[in-house]
Specification:
Length: 320
């Protein structure tokens, strides 16, 4: 695994949350909380990253992650370039590393990368110049670290900082989900009391993955008494056609409906990373209902990405 730290121990890249100590996770969440702002209020801005240039390189679609990384960087005074990969020389066959090295020559200081291939983000991080940082914006089915942090921040805002008393249920296509893997890393890192994995057998991750998760194959078994219900999208883009479950049948067995949600604690919160398939993994009545914190998750995305960018990029000298 790539070492994502500098020699002095500070984070140089953010590729994964795996192994981040609790104190560091708490510090990032505290930092992010300072950037959270009510809707309608003027968002906090500063010049902490003035002079820094960041590139957004997304080879998979994104709305929330891409826009919030860009907003986060701009609100810290950085310059941001969104590279349209299909319009770049990558489309003519240029390798990812040649593209990256070209952008380094143009004084880029960091790259935010989403890629469907496992290992690409770490490969880039291993080959960039020493002053350059790489941020994962979602890597294949493996990790989505800033999503994990924004999910943890959302739980903290609604349930408090003590994760050891919480029972968190992750429901749906866990096997193909980078969101679930980063959620596992951050929730276990923060000392969650109980983490439940609820999925049909075909969408349950392999034995050996998620070692601290309790596995359930029905929501009726797994949702009882949960404090947090995190629904996942079926990741059709990572499945062969024959593997894709029928939407109607899936909703009947696993969709989060109001009656199913009543199995959880009365004050349980409902999360979903989005994009949502309404009527497949979640009913609109629940997604838009009083227990839903899905919009808070989106709002927290900017604050978390500001904290991550600032923590990783700030400790660098201004170049002459
Ligand atoms: N949650 C999330 O990663 O959303 P996007 O795919 O829109 O970035």
């Amino acid at each position: 695994m790539l070492n994502q730290r500098r020699g002095d121990g500070s984070l140089r890249h953010l590729i994964t949350l795996e192994g981040l100590p609790r104190a560091e996770l708490d510090a990032l969440l505290d930092h992010a909380q300072r950037y959270v702002c009510a809707l309608g209020a003027r968002p906090p801005m500063n010049r902490a990253l003035a002079g820094v240039t960041l590139g957004n390189l997304f080879t998979e679609p994104s709305t929330r992650t891409r826009v919030s990384f860009e907003l986060a960087a701009r609100r810290l005074g950085a310059e941001v370039i969104n590279l349209e990969v299909q319009l770049s020389s990558r489309a003519k066959g240029e390798t990812m590393l040649d593209t990256i090295h070209t952008l380094e020559s143009l004084h880029f200081d960091g790259f935010v990368i989403r890629d469907s291939e496992p290992g690409v983000v770490a490969h880039v991080a291993a080959h960039v110049a020493p002053h350059v940082s790489v941020f994962s914006a979602g890597e294949a089915h493996l990790s989505h670290p800033t999503q994990g942090l924004l999910d943890a921040l959302t739980v903290r805002q609604h349930k408090g900082v003590r994760f050891d008393s919480l029972s968190i249920a992750i429901v749906g296509d866990i096997k193909h989900s980078r969101v679930a893997r980063s959620a596992y890393d951050v929730f276990t890192g923060l000392g969650v009391g109980e983490l439940r994995l609820i999925a049909p057998p075909a969408l349950m991750p392999a034995n050996g993955e998620f070692p601290d998760g309790r596995r359930f194959t029905t929501p009726e078994q797994g949702l009882r008494g949960a404090d947090v219900v995190m629904m996942l999208r079926i990741q059709k883009e990572r499945m062969a056609q024959a593997e894709i479950p029928d939407g109607e049948q899936y909703f009947a067995r696993y969709g989060l409906t109001a009656p199913r949600l009543r199995l959880a604690k009365p004050d349980a919160i409902v999360m979903h990373p989005q994009p949502m398939n309404r009527g497949i993994e979640i009913d609109s009545e629940v997604a838009d209902g009083p227990q839903s914190v899905i919009r808070d998750q989106v709002r927290n995305g900017v604050a978390v990405r500001m904290a991550v960018l600032e923590s990783v990029l700030r400790p660098r000298p201004v170049r002459a």
